[in-house]
Structures are given as structure tokens and as C-alpha cells.
Design brief:
This protein has about 80 residues and is mainly alpha-helical. It has a domain of about 35 residues. It has two helices and no strands. α1 packs antiparallel against α2. The longest helix has 26 residues. It is elongated, with a radius of gyration of 17 Å. The protein starts with 12 loop residues before the first helix and ends in a 15-residue tail after the last helix.
């Protein structure tokens, strides 16, 4: 929307940590496909899930982006 102020565009410790860990998990899963290892693929998937959990926990701990104060931003148009 025009005129919206975005102070960080998601550049937070929680976002960077979550995405970084998920990327490592995706790399592990990619290597698992090349070497045809189901066990390694599952390990990569677990790392991806840990990235999601880590990002969420850090966000709840205050290291994420702040919510907009105007609640109308998240409501659907009627």
C-alpha cells in the first residue's frame, strides 16, 4: 500500500536465524537427494523444523519485528 512505513522489512535476529537454519536444512536435504540417503534427508527436514521453531521462539522473546499498532492493517476489506 502506498504510504506504509516499513522500518525493517523483516531484518530481525529472529528472521535471520530462522531462515539461516532452514537454509542449512535445505542444503542437507539437497545433498541427501544427490547421495540417495533417506536418513540424511530426514535429518535435513528436522533441521528445517528446528529453524522454524527457533525463529518463532526468538520472535516471541522480543527479537522479531514489532506488530503494527493500527489493527486495521490486518483486517480484511468488507
Amino acid at each position: 500500500m502506498a504510504g506504509e512505513a516499513h522500518s525493517n522489512h523483516g531484518n530481525t535476529i529472529a528472521a535471520w536465524t530462522g531462515v539461516g537454519v532452514i537454509m542449512i536444512g535445505a542444503l542437507i536435504m539437497s545433498i541427501a537427494v544427490v547421495v540417495a540417503s533417506v536418513t540424511l534427508f530426514i535429518a535435513g527436514a528436522v533441521v528445517c523444523l528446528l529453524g522454524v521453531v527457533a525463529g518463532k521462539l526468538l520472535s516471541r522473546a522480543g527479537y522479531g519485528a514489532k506488530r503494527p499498532e493500527d489493527s486495521r492493517v490486518t483486517r480484511a476489506v468488507r
